[in-house]
Amino acid sequence: MYNYSESIKILTTKFPILKAAYEDDIEYYEDLPYVFYEDVFIKHIMDKTQSNDEVELRNIFNFVEDMLFNGDDEIKNLIGVAVVESLYYENDFAWNDKSLSKMYGALTKKSFEDCAS
């Protein structure tokens, strides 16, 4: 099970490219996982969406699904709010696009659908 207190470490371990952003502004992001996920991880997702990097997008949505399935309640909320809701309300992200939605696991899909209802 993933523990909320480790949420930034989990993300930067899975996506090492994000570690520099954390280390560059550690005083700001430390103990603020929601802010880090919304500022840094969402930007990463949007960059990969705009460049149509299907391999990285699959990795991202596998990670999201894994966190929703294996995270503690606080992790699940973090992913639901800071990632799924942020993407849902992002103007340049079409969450229900067929090429993206085929990458979602069941929990990720349900989380997006919950935003829509």
Report low-confidence residues grouped into runs of 5 or more. Answer: none
Oligomer kind: single chain
> SSE order in H/E notation?
HHHHHHHH
- The overall strand count is 0
How many domain modules? Answer: 1
Write a compact overview of the structure shown.
The chain is an all-alpha fold. 72% of the residues lie in helices and 0% in strands.
What does this structure look like?
This protein is mainly α and 117 residues long. It has one domain. Helix content is 72%, strand content 0%. The longest helix is centred in the middle third of the chain and has 18 residues. The chain starts with 6 loop residues before the first helix and ends with a helix. The mean pLDDT is 96.
List keywords for this structure.
117 residues, mainly alpha, 8 helices
Task: Provide the fold topology.
Blueprint: H1 7-14, H2 19-24, H3 26-29, H4 33-50, H5 54-70, H6 73-88, H7 98-101, H8 106-116
Helix pairs in contact: 4-6, 5-6, 6-8
